[in-house]
Each structure stands twice: as structure tokens, then as C-alpha cells.
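User: Fold both of these, please.

Assistant: Here is the first one.
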Amino acid sequence: MATPKRRLKKELEKAEKELAQVLAQLEERPDFGLGTGSTGVFSWEMALARRERTEEHIAMIQAALERVDRGEYGICQTCGAKIDPERLEIVPCTTECAECARKG
């Protein structure tokens, strides 16, 4: 099984590739003119939303990597309990144990 740091770095690499693809889609902006709008406007706006989600995901991965480096990865930032390894496997960027996430 991969270490948390290795798993997070792999996930970061995947997210950065996705961001590069989205940014390439956003390079050509369709016509937004009144009555002359392109059908590509919808796709372009969806790519904008995808860019935002991907950038947020990258920030979460980077924060998780920082927690690994500080020795705080897998520790609930709310109650200080150890986060279940199965939860970390499913949600590797989580900052809370399942109990605190439920209360959330």
C-alpha cells in the first residue's frame, strides 16, 4: 500500500493534469454577444466551474501534504482524534474524523 504522501502526490499530479486540460479549453472564449452567442458558451462556462473545483481540490491536496510534513496528517483538526485509515483511503484530504464530520 502506498504511503499517504505518495498517494497524495499522485492525486496532485492527476489534478494538475486536469487543470491544464481545463485551462486549454478556456483559451478560446466563445462569442457572448447579444443574439449572436455561440453554443460553446455553455461548455466554456462549465469549464470555468471545473477550473474552480480543480483549483480548490489542488489546494486541499497541498494542505494535506503540508500536514503530512508536519506529522499532523490523519489527526482530526476538530477533536484531535486519529482519523480512521479507511476514511483517509476514501477521502485522503479530509481534516476531520467521521464523528466530527457528522456533527459538522
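And the second sequence with its predicted structure:
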Amino acid sequence: MSPARRKRPTRREVDATVGLLATLANPLRLQLLLALAREGALSAGELQTRAGAEQSAVSHQLATLRKARLVSAEREGRHMIYSLLDHHVAHIVEDAFKHATE
């Protein structure tokens, strides 16, 4: 279907997209997502090291990313391992980063 023939997005779809972009519009959340997109699943401690941020700040932002359905978490022993929820998240983050830095 050509772009001109696509249906007009609903208010709900627009609001959901705005919410996604607002979630991405945070430097620490973007760093965390980029690390997961580029390196795959990482523990909370590894993400803290990659981001160079306080543990409490990383935990708070990871909770926000989970609530936004951008990352998932699994417990492995005493560690929480985080990964992107699906491949779309990696594309969105990488494309936004590339566009902004060109």
C-alpha cells in the first residue's frame, strides 16, 4: 500500500506513539536501550557500568522501560537480566540515534 493510501492513524495510535517517543526522550533510558540493542541481554549491574550512573537511577529507569513494554527482565540467580522486548525496539533506538548524529 502506498503511503498516500494508508489509513489515518487513530487518536489512540497517535497517543501511544507520543508516549513511546516521550519514554525515549531521556538520556539515561536511551543509553540503556542502546546498550541492550548493541550488546544483547545484560544484568542491571552491567547496565549500570555501561551507563556510568547510580544504581538507584538505573533501577528506576529500567522499571520505566519495563512499564513501557520496551524491555523485559528475567531473574538468573541473584541477578536480573534485561533484554529488549522485541527487535522493533532496537530498530527504533538505532534509527533515532543514527538520524540525530548524522
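The CA atoms of residues 71 and 84 lie 4 Å apart.
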